[in-house]
Amino acid sequence: MNTTGTDRIGEAVRAVVEPVLESLDLQLYDLQTGSQLVRVLVDTTDGVSSDDLATATRILSRRLDELDPMPGAYTLEVSSPGVERPLRTAHHFRGAVGETVTIKCGPGVDGDRRVNGTLIAADDDGVTIALDDLDGTERTVLLRDIAKARTTFAWDAAGPANRKASRS
Questions:
Q1: I want to staple 142 with a disulfide (CB 3.0 to 4.6 A). Which of 43, 116, 121, 126 is the partner?
Q2: CA-CA distance, 47 to 43, in Å (whole number)?
């Protein structure tokens, strides 16, 4: 596998970010690097506070400036993945099994490009969703065909309606 310049930059940034987050008892949920952006999504089993984010931002900014893994100027964004979490990797999808998701497929995919339902299975190649709008119908989508995906969150009168028990 060839490693592009962007991959090397991402790996260099990850090498800075992971130990800092670990020292703060935060988990790296996702890391995205672009030409002028470093986006770090952090999580914990108990949720992330604004103080956690401020501390992580301050320390990461200092460490990234010291080690300079990104060429040129960039913007550092540190936040939580939120209630409606982006799903970009097989790991993200495996962690979201049992949750309600919305998936947008890329052009040229057979069937509807938008898929909504409960994620019932995920592996390194694809995901299976029990569709919301059809009784008992499931659809499998290959990860390579997914353009964008996220968990969805619905509130009912009693509060959150579709969170997994492990995050309650």
A1: 126
A2: 6
